[in-house]
Each structure stands twice: as C-alpha cells, then as structure tokens.
Design a protein that fits this description.
Layout (H helix, E strand, L loop, with lengths): L3 E4 L2 E4 L10 H5 L2 E9 L2 E2 L2 H14 L8 H15 L4 E8 L17 E8 L2 H10 L1 E7 L14 H12 L4 E5 L5 E4 L3 E5 L5 E3 L10 H12 L4 E3 L4 H6 L2 E6 L3 E8 L2 E2 L7 H17 L2
Bound molecules: 4'-deoxy-4'-aminopyridoxal-5'-phosphate (PMP).
Amino acid sequence: MGRIAYVNGRFVPHGEATVHIEDRGYQFADAVYEVWALFDGRLADPEGHLARLERSLSELSIAMPMSRAALTMVLKEAVRRNRVSEGLVYLQVSRGVAPRDHAFPNPPVRPATVITVSRVDRAASEAKAAKGVGVVTVAENRWGRCDIKTVGLLPNALAKQKARAAGAVEAWFVDDLGFVTEGSSSNAWIVDRDGRLRTRDTNANILRGVTRLTLLDVIRQNGLEVDERPFTPAEATAAKEAFITSASSFVLPVVSVDGKAVGEGKVGPVASRLRRLYIEQAKATAI
Ligand code: PMP
C-alpha cells in the first residue's frame, strides 16, 4: 500500500500531494513544523510537541489550524492510514496561500496544513547508536529566533551537508564566544570530566527540544545531576561522553568532534543508559 499524505483537510496519495506555488512556507519560509517519533504506531511526547507548535505559531501570529484535540485525531488518522508502526510524523503549518507580498495577508488567510508519515528502520538506528557517531563544528550563522521551529532551515541544511561530506552525522553550531549552541537538527550534551551532565540552557538562541525536556525529567527522576550550562568543543573532547537528542534520534552517543575522540572515543555508559530510559519513558507515555 502506498504512502498517504494529509493536505488541508484531505488524505491524498503521497505522490499527488501538492501545495500552491504561492504558499508562504514555500516563498518566505513563513511556516512552522513539528516531528513526532512513533512507537508501535503511537505518538511520542505528544503534549510537548503540541505545546511547542502552539508557541511557534503564536510567536508568528499564525492561528492553530484546528484544536489540539482535532489535530491529534488527524495525526493519528494519518498514522493509521499509512500503517506505520515505527517511524516519524511530520506536520507543517504555513501562514497560508496569498499573492506574494512580504507583509502578512490582510485579512488573514487559512493556514495551510500538511502531514506526512514515514517508516524508520529501528534496528538500523539501534546499530548506529551502539557504534556512536561523529559530529563536526560549524560557525553559528542562524537568525536570532531559533526558539521558533520554522522551516527556514537553510543554515541547518548546509551544516548537515558539511557533516555528511566529512563522514559525520551531525554538525554543532558554535557561537562567537566559542560555545556549542546546538546541532543542526538536535540538542547537544556532554558528560563532563566530573561526570556531570551538561546541556545548553534555553535562554540561548536554540530550539527548546522536546526530547531534551523529557530527558531532563528522566535524568532528575533517576537522581542524576545536570547543569544547563554551555560547553566548548574542547570541553566536549575532554569530556567522558557526549550525545545528541532529537525526536528522530532519541539519545544518540557522539564519539568524536571534528575527528577528535570524545573521552575514550567509545559509546559510554551514561548515554547508553539515558537512551534506554528515554525510550522506556517515551513508549510509556505515547498516545
Ligand atoms: N534543535 C534543532 C535545530 C532541531 O531541528 C531539533 C529537531 N527538531 C532539535 C534541536 C531537537 O528537538 P526535538 O527533541 O524536539 O526533536
């Protein structure tokens, strides 16, 4: 059975799903998105992603396309129609379709909503996590509102491509003061020399990762200590462990930064344990 996409109120074959050429997401990146992991066909961290969606939309004065409850039903229906058990759900909401003009359409137009569902090979993801991945660093060059999850991802795409070309899996942005902000599609963490977990605070210009937030909860539930404080790439290589978090990678161990080993250059016990604990918690709370 083929993939099915949701476009503005209709489920259509994926290959035939289209948006208008004057969709403001297409012309101005005037759109936001969310990604949910699926465990056994159920949405992981449902409320966290919905809350961030509402916040992103509100920061841009775009209306929620429908209520939270209705949106949850549509997301679940999209999953059901695609018969995906382990995978990802992508939701994008743009300001809508209007004749090209930088200023918002007045009166406002209906936001345009798109949902796609994709399958993920979890065995391959587990193998990747067991081996650990490399990251490269790139200069931070994004705008000042990375807390809004917009589809304006060109710097992120360029950074990810740099990583790919270097045989790495992720790129970490580094700010003017030499501190890691976050990854191109993930949040960055270390287990420092003293064994303390560290990740950047969300007053910085970063995305408030939902996986990050759930993991902070898991960490505290397990009596571990965490500092929401920035670190440099040199601190990462001097650290015991490093890892990244995102809805698509969960907790993914990082074993090298710019080709230099993190700690002993192997996947460490803290990242492995946190990956297991995060997945347990996400499975238990998925809807
Ligand atoms: N930072 C950026 C720039 C991202 O694109 C993502 C993934 N959406 C994250 C962090 C991680 O966020 P989440 O855990 O909500 O997927």
